[in-house]
Amino acid sequence: MSSQDIPEENLPAEQAAHDHGHGAVAVADDRHPFADPGLPPHEHRVQDIDERAAKRSERVVAFLFTLSMLATVGFIVSYVAIPADKAIYVFPIGKVSALNFALGLTLGLALFTIGAGAVHWARTLMSDAEIADERHAIEAPPEVKAKVLADFKQGAKESALGRRKLIRNTMFGALALFPLSGVMLLRDLGTLPGTKLRHTLWSKGKLLVNMNTNEPLRASDVVTGSLTFVKPEGLEEDAEDFQTEIAKAAVMIVRLQPDNIKDKRELEWSHEGIVAYSKICTHVGCPISLYEQQTHHVLCPCHQSTFDLSDGARVIFGPAGHALPQLRIGVNDQGYLEALGDFEEPVGPAFWERG
């Protein structure tokens, strides 16, 4: 339906006024050799004429915004309720993670319906009249500022945000609810650590088990100058919490000549020159794996923090902030190396800064 088919008295007053400025052309002359074609006649939409059609469009926009709110709620429910290891079959994709599929579907729907509602609102209910404006200097004189303010008020009026309360309320609801999706992602930060970072699986009587052979170590098995990695007795690699626990409990043992040990406490906590230190670097938690026999230094391969195992594993180079924690060890009646307790300080990087 076009404006030519509609009596002017049936059009909104402001739209009828716009029509009078459309279609005007400027005639070419010596100063302006090219004629201004002007703007084409404005074609009114059915929503401009029929309030029932406008109400239908309003309900469509409100429906899209409401659907966005429901999708956001679905995102939150999916994030909380669906197990991370649950899989479902989706044709034609195949077997996928149920949680990832639900999160992607609900989040995509929430975003899409907000955008679709805004586009439908703009195309069917907001004013679509084209207005020509003359170019002007960058500096805005008072009359231009007044015009901008008037145009803003006119735009606010034409958006019908105050009159279309259903659209306004549902839009505000969709926009207010959607950010909760991002808030829910903070759940992955997990619970507060409490005292978990202060303790490991080491305790009095736990045997030192060789990480390579999975067998307990005797003192006689440790050769002078060798580097061996051990884990606490009872920690198996197929256990569900293996990675979490070994990240705190990994230990390296080295046998030194007792006369080469400079630190008094290190000597007391060792057994016949066998010392046990945390394998976790105190910089950013990388596993230490390089040992130099002549200097008794261990090196972290990530950022080259270097520790002196003959002097309390103090830092002699690199960005690490403090020495490696030492594990007090001894031997049991069968001659196997055992822990005499847990570490007396937390292992890993920057613990006190992590809270």
| Largest sheet descriptor | 5 strands, antiparallel
- Which word captures the global form? elongated
- Relative strand content: 5-15%
Multimeric status of the protein: single chain
Proportion in helices? 25-40%
Series of secondary-structure elements, N-terminal to C-terminal: HHHEEHHHHEEHEHEEEEEEEEH
User: How many distinct beta strands?
Assistant: 13
Tally of contiguous helical segments: 10
Task: Measure the end-to-end span.
Answer: 69 Å
> Reading side by side through the largest sheet, how are the strands ordered?
3-4-5-6-11
| Radius of gyration (Å) | 37 Å
Give average pLDDT, whole number: 85
Structural class: alpha+beta
Q: Low-confidence parts lasting 5 or more residues at pLDDT below 50?
A: 14-23
Task: Explain briefly what this protein structure is.
Helices cover 34% and strands 14% of the residues.
List the helices and strands and how they pair.
Layout: H1 13-19, H2 46-49, H3 51-81, E1 87-90, E2 94-97, H4 98-124, H5 142-158, H6 165-177, H7 180-185, E3 208-210, E4 227-232, H8 242-249, E5 251-255, H9 264-268, E6 274-278, E7 290-292, E8 297-299, E9 306-308, E10 314-317, E11 326-327, E12 329-331, E13 337-339, H10 351-354
Antiparallel strand pairs: 1-2, 3-4, 4-5, 5-6, 6-11, 7-8, 8-9, 9-10, 12-13
Report on this structure.
This protein has 355 residues and is an alpha+beta fold. Helix content is 34%, strand content 14%. It is built from 10 helices and 13 strands. It has helices at residues 13-19, 46-49, 51-81, 98-124, 142-158, 165-177, 180-185, 242-249, 264-268, 351-354; strands spanning 87-90, 94-97, 208-210, 227-232, 251-255, 274-278, 290-292, 297-299, 306-308, 314-317, 326-327, 329-331, 337-339. It has a 5-stranded antiparallel beta sheet. A hairpin with a 5-residue loop joins β9 (306-308) and β10. The longest helix is centred in the N-terminal third of the chain and has 31 residues, at 51-81. The protein is elongated.
